[in-house]
């Protein structure tokens, strides 16, 4: 049975966030502001259907998807690109592969203890975040 990622999570730490944003082409001013934020992520999981809200004082982002079904994702508020996304379970890890303008892009969520981990990729730049339960 896959993990239940439902909950409210607030960013604790991240590694290489600036490099990741740079690889995605995010402008200088936005990168500097975004590094200071502690976004909150709300995950609602109902069997294979997910709704994820990522909220911060700079921007909010919302995505809704079903496991195994490719969908059009509009990254407005992030890097403002559109891509085709496919989310699957890889054991207890929720993994998304994104196809579009930027190659090698995607993310993986998993839980260790009481912390939600997020690893994102974009043009061989990686970001790892640790997000404790709220």
From TrEMBL:
GO MF annotations, alphabetized: lipid binding
SUPFAM superfamilies membership: Lipocalins (SSF50814)
User: Keyword Membrane on this protein?
Assistant: no
Keywords, A to Z, come to:
Transport
**Record-annotated Cytosolic fatty-acid binding proteins domain positions:** 7-24
**What family, per the record?**
Belongs to the calycin superfamily. Fatty-acid binding protein (FABP) family.
What name is this protein filed under?
Retinol binding protein 7
């Amino acid at each position: 049975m896959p993990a239940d990622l439902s909950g409210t999570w607030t960013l604790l730490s991240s590694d290489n966030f600036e490099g990741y944003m740079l690889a995605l082409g995010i402008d200088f001013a936005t990168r500097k502001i975004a590094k200071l934020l502690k976004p909150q992520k709300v995950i609602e999981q109902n069997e294979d259907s997910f709704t994820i809200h990522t909220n911060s004082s700079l921007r909010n982002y919302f995505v809704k998807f079903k496991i195994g079904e490719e969908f059009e994702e509009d990254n407005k508020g992030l890097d403002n690109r559109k891509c085709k996304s496919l989310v699957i379970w890889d054991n207890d890890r929720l993994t998304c592969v994104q196809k579009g303008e930027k190659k090698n892009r995607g993310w993986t969520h998993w839980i260790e203890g009481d912390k939600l981990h997020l690893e994102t990729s974009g043009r061989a730049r990686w970001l790892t975040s640790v997000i404790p339960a709220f």
